[in-house]
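Budget justification note: compute hours in this period were largely spent on complex prediction jobs such as the one shown. Inputs:
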Amino acid sequence: MNFQVIIDSLPRLLNGALVTLELVALAALAGFVLALFIALARLSRNPLLWMPAYGFIFFFRGTPLLVQIFLIYYGLSQFPEVRASVLWPVLREPYWCALIAFSLNTSAYTAEIMRGAIQAVPRGQIEAAMATGMSRLTRLRRVVLPQAMRIGLPAYSNEVILLVKASSLASTVTLMDITGTARTISSVNYMPVELLTTAALIYLTINFLLTRAFKVLEHLISGETRAAVNDPLMAAGLNTPEAMKKIQVK
Amino acid sequence: MFDLQGFGPMLLLGAWMTVQVALTAAFFGILLGLGVALMKLSNSRIARLLGDIYTTVLRGVPILVVILLFYFGAISGVNAIARSLGHTQFIDLSAFVAGTAALSLAFGAYATEVFRGAFQAIPKGQIEAARAVGMSRFTAFRRVSLPQVWRLALPGLGNIFLVILKETALVSVIGLEELMRKTEYAVGFTRQPFTFFLFAALLYLAMTIVAMVVLQQLEKRANRGIVRGVGA
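Corresponding output:
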């Protein structure tokens, strides 16, 4: 192990870390917004809504991310119409293509997490909200989504970690993220082991910090549930939907 | 719909290589996961620490970086040894070995957590009963825990397999001629990237669907004789 090489290349690798973080942040944001619509479409009873959503999720979860990136970056150039369109300056850039691929990919996974979380909100609460005269949108905004967010957060934090790791594929379309920088430098100085190990350590650090941040966030938005520890039902573990059902049956 | 211009058989050959890589990684990954899960559940502090380091690192680092590290690391390692033995020529390590080793390690890290959960899901009373009838710890493990772990771990292992099946595409980066690499050849020749990458995507989808059906059958088989609770 040549530590001087590691120290010398650290500034450039950290610069790459900024690119990685930027890609992850933008893709997570775009993916989240997109996922909300996909999840709602997926949950709809209208086949014109749920079938395309199902197909989208199936395609993006069933194929490798590398294929998706290549389809967008190399694939779209096959069509003269695309090359002539106003979007071409965007679709020509590896940065935007990678960002689009990451956003679409993460939105498919996030939509499934949201669907699970929305369906996990107890039915009785929705009925109660209906009974008090809330409209569909109000129910969604006031009852379903706030709770779904809490239920889905642990799974979503996993998805963000996966996105950080997936972003290393940006290096396959020449972007200088952490992996891209490590590969480029090592192709010049022939020290791939040193550079890739350092890159691995940077990824580990980012993921460690992200895991911590999500733990804090989980703690922050679970205020009411934590307060319920004093609740005797909660203490006995009887406030879960399943337990409630059993109590009702008896 | 697709005019493959005669590249069809070549792509199918690539898909076959993809399947081989995924199955090999699954085989070694399951063995590795089982071993490390036992380390993590053991009483030895060192074994637990090693297990923790392994899963934390392999689950926190992109598989692409692990693959590259394996490829270049193993090459420079093997050549350093060869040089010290007086060998002067450069030895190239097969992309299949490096890629499969990296994917096996990644599979193993995820499988460790699945196996750990499966072992913990076996009722403690069963182990106590086995011990009470005079089985040694090892016999109790072999006869009582192990046969049940397969059934409990199968859904989790299936999910990992579906993930790893897609990650095999990354081995194309170090030059293994699996589906992705073969597709790139076809693209280079025909200049029709969309057609061929879409076709590759559909082949991956088809492989995923086949894997899902097989896993479903395996689960059915593993669960034969198990009566599920009505409420569960």
